[in-house]
């Protein structure tokens, strides 16, 4: 940090000195500062005893804004392509974030995609590009990161998922609703674009079970679902009233070979694959041992599924979900007939998925012991209608059940072999 100096300058000086990407931030200086003063005066010290900084900065380092070097360390330097969109991903360490982040960095450039989370980032995430600690419920933290990096668009993934949210609904509502409100208000003040994923959790028992449309009854049965309905409606309000470019997809259950289950009611699918991959790995190891003439007994213990065998739900393989997300991000505004879209790929029950896995791993088996997540699953549709997404921005999925299962198991096997080396 040697050689970096702060100086306080007026808004007019900052407008002259800073890159064009930050001009919009200083145009709203007076509104930012008034909100900051009000929030700071009302804030009491937290458990850490540290007071948060004010929301708005009028200071610049050496008359230029901060940029962030790979590895998450602050440095000054070239801004690069001033026309490139800079994205901030909140919740980057989560189930979707940890795969969407490298996908977007490969597409848009590592310095143009800033990661953030309240959790510590793994080394590969720090090495891959900018990373910031960020609690989305704290508006001033969010504003600081947006200002320092010249952010143009926020991909707001930070949220508590359904199963975790039901154990602590008050916290889920606080994190999910406050985070959304902060992102949208910051977008309003600074002309930012916003993508915030929704979920099939917005649907409820009164939603049609077959081909649930984009516009239908939404009476969710979970705190997470309620927060996502709030997000959808608030985003549409900010778009209609203030012109914020808000976009959202209702994610189905996500199947990923990289991310561990994150507390959702559809996580059984990932757990099934990981159980099968473990069995395959154990059996393969034992087959190479001359003292074993038969397959390992690891294949004799079944996976215990927390849903009923016939609990059909919409699912999507992560590669399709990543493509859907970036496709909507890049879709021209004129092609969008709505702000929130259903997206679909496949619908499958636990027993159907188990049968496909068993064809690949014959010693795999499953038993069904429904818990509280069965009630959550029963409130969701079995199939959703995504025809509007397919019409408006040419959405189409690539992976069906069979090829998804084969690819998922192959990835898990490769990962297991690499760990053993």
Automatic annotation (TrEMBL):
Compositionally biased region (Polar residues): 40-51
Protein origin, superkingdom: Eukaryota
Record region (Disordered): 40-61
GO biological process terms on file: L-threonine catabolic process
Molecular function as annotated in GO: L-threonine 3-dehydrogenase activity
All copies of domain NAD-dependent epimerase/dehydratase, residue ranges: 88-344
UniProt-listed InterPro entries: Epimerase_deHydtase, NAD(P)-bd_dom_sf, NAD(P)_epim/dehydratase
PANTHER family: L-THREONINE 3-DEHYDROGENASE, L-THREONINE 3-DEHYDROGENASE, MITOCHONDRIAL
Similarity annotation: Belongs to the NAD(P)-dependent epimerase/dehydratase family.
Protein name: NAD-dependent epimerase/dehydratase domain-containing protein
Organism: Chrysotila carterae (Marine alga)
